[in-house]
Amino acid sequence: MPSLRWLGHAAVELNLQGKKIVIDPFIKNNPTAPVKLSYFDDFDLIAVTHDHYDHLGDTVEIMNKNKKALLFATWDLENYLNKEYNIPWDRMIPANVGGYVEYQGIKLALTQAIHSSEHSDPTGVIISADGITIYHAGDTGLFEGMKIIGEVFKPDYALLPIGGRFTMDPYQASIAVDMIKPKKGVIPIHYNTWDLIKVDPGDFERYVKDKGYKPIILQPGQSIEL
Fold first, then answer.
1. Distance (Å, whole) CA 34 – CA 39
2. Where are the domains of the chain?
3. pLDDT-derived band of residue 157, with 50, 70 and 90 as boundaries?
4. Where does the Metallo-beta-lactamase domain start and stop, copy by copy (predicted)?
């Protein structure tokens, strides 16, 4: 059964097409993470939205231990990881913002995000399989292009940062929901990891309900069937 599990902060586990996928695996220094790095020893794919420490996270260590895991990220970020950490190109799926890339029955795409990043442009990620499309916005502010993302990819679920300060806040994220129009639900991420991004997810829940969409508030470690 396809499923999604929030691993705290922006880290998200997906089980799709018989494959285990993690997005932005920030685990060791994440005080909300419900798992340890050994949890990823049999994962198939890592998707990284950008190179900030709380998103690139433990990617290199996971890939060094789990030799089957592949990486999906921008070419520039993968080039940095190849040169700096000797991650081989045959274990990476290079891409940039654009169309779908096929990976063993799973469709992957990168989207624009409005944020900062040192070794590549920041992105969101689209993952589609089993008749389900998920949009993980990465770290981003509110931008009008979210409407295009919604129109092109038609996500069933959206994962949106709501912590404010470095990303959208709950109110801005609810505006993003109205542009993206997720068909089955929207899940807030990237909040309450530290006091700097402390918000009440109940505010987001109310804003989203008022707009006629389904908010799904998860606790770190909690899963849903997709």
1. 10
2. 3-217
3. very high
4. 8-190
